[in-house]
Write a structure and sequence with these properties.
- This protein is of the alpha/beta class and about 400 residues long.
- The protein is built from 18 helices and 13 strands.
- Strand 2, helix 3 and strand 3 form a beta-alpha-beta unit.
- The radius of gyration is 24 Å and the shape is globular.
- About 35% of the residues are buried.
C-alpha cells in the first residue's frame, strides 16, 4: 500500500487522532514504531469492548510495528476515573496479579505474540512513588508541571463535582501515572477508548516535559454492552468475555437488540454492512455470534454453538447434555436456584421467577414455590438448564 492508503486504513474507525499530520509523518518515516495500549486488570477477563482497540493494535503489528501492551498492575489499584460517576473500589495486589495472568493470555487471541512487548507499569511507577532515591524527585518534577485546573478539565470530574460526588486525590493523579507510562516506554503512538482521550493527551504533555517526541493519540469508539445502555464492562454485567464458553457467547449475542447487533458488526467484524442489512435480523445475529466464536474459539465450536442454539430455542428441544443437581429436601425454589448455580443468589432468583423466566419441565414456575424433590428439568431464561433429581 502507499503511505496515503496506509494512513487511510489505519485511521479507519477512529474517533480521535491527535494529530493526523503527526501520524502521517510517523508512518512515512520508515521507523519501526512503538504503539502503546494500556489495560488495567480490574477483572479476570478481557471482553469484546477490549477487542475493538486490540484489533487496531494488531493492524499496526501487521504493518511491521511493535505493540507495547502495558498491564496496569499499579494503576489498577489506583482506579481509572474515566467514564465513572463514582470512585472505583480499591483492588488488592493479589487480585490484580491473578487478573493480570489471564489478560496476557487472552490478549494473544488478537495480537501477534512475536510482535508484542508486555510491560507492567509497576516496574517504574512503584519506584516513582515509593523510593526516595529513585522516584520521589521525579514525581515532584512531573507534579509541579501539571496543574490541578488542567486535571479537573475532564468531563467526568466536572459532572461529579456538580453532583457533589467525591473525587479522591488518587483519581486526580491517575492521568499522571498513566501518562508517565508513555514516557517510560517511549511510545510513538498510544491507543485507547474514546473515554481515554484526556489520559492519553496527558501522556503527550509529559513526553514533551521529558524532551521526547510526543506520541500520536488515537481513540476508538466504545462498544455498548449487551444491555444496550452503557459501555461494555464487567462491573456493569453487560459484557461478552473473550473466554466465555461458545454457547454463552452465542446466547448473549442473540439477546442484543437489532440496532446494537449492527453496531457490533461494524466494530467487531470486517463484514459488508450492505449485505448484512439484507438479512433477517435473526439470521444476522446467528452469523455474528458464529463469527465471534470462530475468531476466539474456532470454526468447529462456532458450528456446534449454532446447532445447539437452534436445537434448544428454534426447535424447542432440550440440550443434549444438562448438568445434574440432586435435591435432597423440600425448600424454596429461589434457594434451590442459588444452590445449583443458575443465578447469582436468592434475590436474583426471586426476580427471575417474578419475571416469568423460570420453568420446570416447560411450565412457568409460580412465585413463592416450595419445591418438593422430584425428577424434572429446571430452565432459567434461554441458556441455563439443570436436571433435578431426588
Amino acid at each position: 500500500m502507499t503511505n496515503e492508503e496506509i494512513l487511510k486504513e489505519i485511521g479507519r474507525g477512529c474517533t480521535d487522532i491527535v494529530s493526523r499530520e503527526e501520524l502521517a509523518e510517523k508512518l512515512s518515516s520508515g521507523k519501526k514504531l512503538r504503539v502503546k495500549l494500556g489495560v488495567d486488570p480490574t477483572s479476570r477477563d478481557l471482553h469484546l469492548g477490549h477487542s475493538v482497540v486490540l484489533a487496531k493494535l494488531r493492524q499496526f503489528q501487521d504493518l511491521g510495528h511493535t505493540a507495547v501492551l502495558i498491564i496496569g498492575d499499579f494503576t489498577a489499584q489506583v482506579g481509572d476515573p474515566s467514564g465513572r460517576d463514582s470512585t472505583r473500589p480499591v483492588i488488592d495486589q493479589e487480585t490484580v496479579e491473578k487478573n493480570a495472568e489471564t489478560y496476557t493470555q487472552q490478549a494473544f487471541k488478537v495480537l501477534d505474540k512475536a510482535k508484542t512487548e508486555i510491560r507492567f507499569n509497576g516496574e517504574w511507577l512503584k519506584a516513582f512513588v515509593g523510593d526516595a532515591s529513585a522516584g520521589v524527585s521525579g514525581l515532584i518534577g512531573v507534579a509541579k508541571n501539571i496543574t490541578v485546573s488542567r486535571l479537573l478539565e475532564r468531563e467526568d470530574f466536572k459532572t461529579r463535582m456538580k453532583a457533589a460526588v467525591p473525587i479522591s486525590l488518587l483519581e486526580i493523579l491517575y492521568p499522571v501515572f498513566q501518562g508517565y507510562d508513555s514516557v517510560a516506554v517511549k511510545a510513538d503512538i498510544e491507543l485507547g477508548g474514546q473515554d481515554q482521550i484526556f489520559n492519553l493527551l496527558v501522556g503527550r504533555d509529559l513526553q514533551k516535559l521529558h524532551s521526547q517526541c510526543p506520541q500520536v493519540v488515537m481513540t476508538m469508539p466504545l462498544l455498548i454492552g449487551t444491555d444496550g445502555a452503557r459501555k461494555m464492562s464487567k462491573s456493569y454485567g453487560n459484557y461478552v468475555a473473550l473466554n466465555d464458553q461458545p454457547a454463552e457467547i452465542f446466547g448473549k449475542i442473540m439477546s442484543v437488540s437489532d440496532a446494537l447487533m449492527l453496531e457490533y458488526y461494524a466494530l467487531l467484524t470486517a463484514s459488508d454492512m450492505a449485505e448484512i442489512k439484507k438479512l433477517h435480523p435473526m439470521e444476522a445475529k446467528k452469523r455474528l455470534a458464529a463469527l465471534l466464536i470462530e475468531k476466539y474459539h474456532g470454526r468447529e465450536e462456532a458450528a456446534a454453538a449454532r446447532e445447539q442454539f437452534e436445537k434448544v430455542f428454534s426447535k424447542k428441544e432440550l440440550p443434549a447434555e444438562i448438568e445434574v443437581f440432586k435435591v435432597e429436601k423440600p425448600g424454596k425454589l429461589s434457594q434451590l436456584m442459588a444452590a445449583c448455580g443458575v443465578c447469582g443468589g436468592t434475590n436474583e432468583a426471586r426476580r427471575l421467577i417474578e419475571q416469568g423466566a423460570v420453568r420446570l419441565d416447560g411450565v412457568k414456575a409460580p412465585e413463592d414455590l416450595v419445591f418438593e424433590p422430584r425428577d424434572c428439568v429446571l430452565q432459567v431464561g434461554r441458556r441455563h438448564f439443570r436436571k433435578l433429581i431426588k
